[in-house]
Amino acid sequence: MPRKALTVAIVAALLGALCPSTLLAQDNAKKIATAMSAAPPAIAKDATIIDWPDATGKMTTLRAGTNGWTCLPSMPSQGKMVNNSACFDANFWAMIGAMMAGKAPDVKGVGYSYMLSNDWWEGNTSFADTVETPTNDWHHTGNHVMIYYPDKAMLAGLPTKPSTTGPYVMWPNTPYAHVMWPVK
To answer: pLDDT of 124-134, one tens digit each?
Structure first.
């Protein structure tokens, strides 16, 4: 490495070690990268990236977008980082907002979401499940696309048992029921 490049690298490393805002910027860059990994590049490149709520419930915009999609980065779970980043269109995001507020969704159109780099485990009976129980169909969701239908009649006849080979309804007996489509 040329001397000038080495000096710049050392100074950057020292500033990063001494300056919390630089570290925060590095963390935000990583968060943006994981959020973008959730959707096809054509969607992710222009999506708004929002961080998960902090301890006060505030969500911070990490990057403004222009295409109506909202992506969230991976979040720490049970003391380790698991990739559960996701991207939502406006309708699916409205359903997620209602779920986070503990309200019934008031969504008028079909909603779509991508989780194409997912390594998450969760229950299939309720969004509130955080650990495996004998009755919550705990499963590895893997990479998938989600579809939210405001008319629950659209879910009739679909399986409710998790599968990696075909669609199923997640959280079937809740207002947040949606179709999971596993993808490779």
So the answer is: 888 888 888 89
